[in-house]
Amino acid sequence: MPDERLRNKNYPQHEVILRNRQNLEVTGVLNVESFDAQEFVLKTQYGFLAIRGENLHIKTLNLENGIVAIEGLILDMGYFDEGMTAGEKAKGFFSKLFR
Q1: Which whole-number Å values give the CA distances from 83 to 18, 48, 74, in the listed order?
Q2: pTM recorded for the entire structure
């Protein structure tokens, strides 16, 4: 069942396409909050999206059109609500995930 917070938003389409666990394309991106070879945090129209993996790098970055493409081995992804810094969001989610 869709979350009420997302149901009434009038945002353009947001998609996450993962191919072979090595190529990720995300649309509806507002900003790249942080990134390194192990983790990207993207601000999307529906909240923050954290991507974790190995040897990650940007293949395409077009914030005018809201498109980010990332290459590397994708290990996991997760969304976060507003209210924390990008690093705290990613750290909180992943520390709970790997307890």
Answers
A1: 27, 10, 26
A2: 0.75
Q: Label residue 45 exposed, middle or buried (CB < 10 Å: 0-12, 13-18, 19+).
A: middle
Alpha-carbon distance of 14 to 25, in angstroms, equals 10
Q: In Å, how far are 44, 72, 94 from 55, measured between CA atoms?
A: 22, 5, 18
- Give dist(CA 22, CA 84) in Å, integer: 28
Cβ neighbours for 5, distance < 8 A, ≥ 6 positions apart: none
User: Could you tell me which of 38, 43, 90 has the C-alpha nearest to residue 68?
Assistant: 43
At 59, give phi and psi (nearest 5°).
-95, -45
Query: In what helix (H) or strand (E) does residue 90 lie, and over which residues does it extend?
Result: helix 86-97
Q: Are 54 and 75 in contact (CB under 8 A)?
A: yes
pLDDT for 36-70, tens place per residue? 999 999 999 889 999 999 999 999 999 999 999 99
